[in-house]
């Protein structure tokens, strides 16, 4: 007989039907007459209760059904007596597929700290919290493709190995096949990459945008969804060295169109989670509430599902960087009355404490900031007529700060080349990018959504290491 998934058994109303279920034991408890085994197979947050007659199966077998062991159960669906689930299964046959030594197994049937679970990340999929997050993550991936497909966007795969630095921040991981102990050098003593695999220096991509722009300049509306890599040595709860980014790029879009799309996109994803992941979200919401109990009233965050609905129901506030700086200059964010990084007026880069203050305390709504000083933004952004600000947009979310970064692009060849020179971007090497501005250039815009930042928001988790299965952070690439 084929196995039925636990999620399907729990939905079933076929009382009396015989089925086979397979999964991992979460707990076993019971009396001298009957044992109750909570079985989970990853298909749902809920466990299936297996009822096993002690006399029928005997102590020797039942003792092997420890937390973490893998079993196969043939049994009959019955209506559940207890509260919780509608149905349970009375076992007719139980087979141990894989034993699990309870003295060795790191996961116990109790709540473990997230820090501890990170140390045993290879087993995290067997916990409620991480399996819930993995299912929500999958739903969000699907929703991203749904959203853009329904709008006629084409998904484009951009390269992971590139020779360019889209953001110009120099935070790249080098790719090389050369023997590190014996690197060929040029006469000036620099590493000679011309002798390497690609004949030039290459790195893991920080963004698919530049190639995305090439595609948009023929396909109109495209999006990328791929891994991106940043060697920024920032050990924060919102930065990863390897993260996934969704980057739509649209010909004939100006900044306002770009903002409209970003807002619609985020709301679509959140609504999709509420419509399709309620079981998991309810579990995660409860988890969060328990965690928040220890905090002072004023530091507690909003209840998760309420917070998600709240974003759907409100228009995002749109204002310029300089308006934001004026607000921040005169604000008293806390009892001390100051930010950790003071705002010294126009030109200061905003830290996440400033972004979160605007969203959580000042406007109490998501905010889109536009028109940043050119000095703190990337070379490709379109210059405003004031010659000092660019058509950038950052979407700021409660709990997260920056969730999306984007802009209208500079479509004018001369202006773009000038800007590249000012910022020491090697224009000659990017002739292919500049060609889009030489041949049929059009206004265009795009943005990047950090997928794990979205996941932080949707799941209410506090640390980005907990919303990606295998986090890559400084000093951390064990598994
Ligand atoms: O603001 P960023 O650097 O923008 C770009 O890369 C543009 N090329 C996007 C575009 O216009 N097509 O990054 C975009 C988003 C950020 O808003 C943030 O959500 C996320 O990517 N992000 C990170 N997420 C996790 N870890 C990191 N180290 C991140 N750096 C950026
Ligand atoms: Mg940014």
TrEMBL record:
PROSITE patterns: AA_TRNA_LIGASE_II (PS50862). One of its GO terms (molecular function) is nucleic acid binding. It catalyses: tRNA(Asn) + L-asparagine + ATP = L-asparaginyl-tRNA(Asn) + AMP + diphosphate + H(+). Pfam families: tRNA-synt_2, tRNA_anti-codon. Homodimer. PANTHER family: ASPARAGINE--TRNA LIGASE, MITOCHONDRIAL-RELATED, ASPARTYL/LYSYL-TRNA SYNTHETASE. This is Asparagine--tRNA ligase. The gene is asnS.
